[in-house]
Here is the input.
Amino acid sequence: MKKTLLLLMWAWAMIAGAQQVTVTSSTPLLRGIEPAFYPTLSPSGDRLLYSDADAHGLKMLDLATSKVATISEERGAGFDAKWSNDGHVYYVTSMVDEKSRLVYRTGKRYDLSRQVSDVVLEPQHGAVHLESGAAGMAMHGDKRSFSTSPKRGVSVYTTGSQLVVNINGKENRYTPVESYAGYLWASVSPAGDKVAFFAAGRGIVVTTLQGKVLAELGNYEMPCWFNNDYIVAQNASDDGYQYTSSQILLLKADGTWRHELTPKTSMTMQPTAGGGKIAYTTIDGNLTVITIDINQ
Here is the structure.
């Protein structure tokens, strides 16, 4: 009886001390206008990039005015577009050569003030990786690369089963965990001291800048930093042909805690965070932006 009472007291103490998350606002976007996929919030949270279901084209939504600007109508432009601190949006387009049937990718930069795009990386066959740092942007291809500055602070990207960490121009490659199918979605924490990425078959991994594993958060996808201590991610399941469930989670970066921001039946996916906001879409392209309060 005494042991049972102690266990109950411990359980109640854990519940009382647990973190509580409240969704303080939830705003649907672009309803009745067009479906939106691959959302990417700006660091300040005032603008949002999005595309169609096939990542063809790239558009920008101003959350204050609800105005939409078309950045590109090209194939692949919306798949991995990134904001830069220099007032530009960087993205990669793709085209298939009619003779060779090979795919060629071109790196482009959209100037928000001029509202025009320029080519910064000429077309080349093979993958092109975007690398966003606190002090600049880079694009890496098999034959050619582009960088706004050799010293970009801390920036990361993945290639195969390697995590590539660049610290002020010095590049190091790590394989923190085994993953024969490779890594995806690497990003640096806001303070620049940790890295999060997805390892196929393992899930989300958090490491130091030297590739030392700090935590494994579970088999979730598309991690993005909400702040330096929390990560937003997608938890999806499928039957081999189509999604059967999908939801948005808030995870503590040390792996000790998780919270469901949306239910599994909501079919919500592709989370992004910026400026204290979280945005996500659904399998049908219904875009929503929310704000949350974390009571620790």
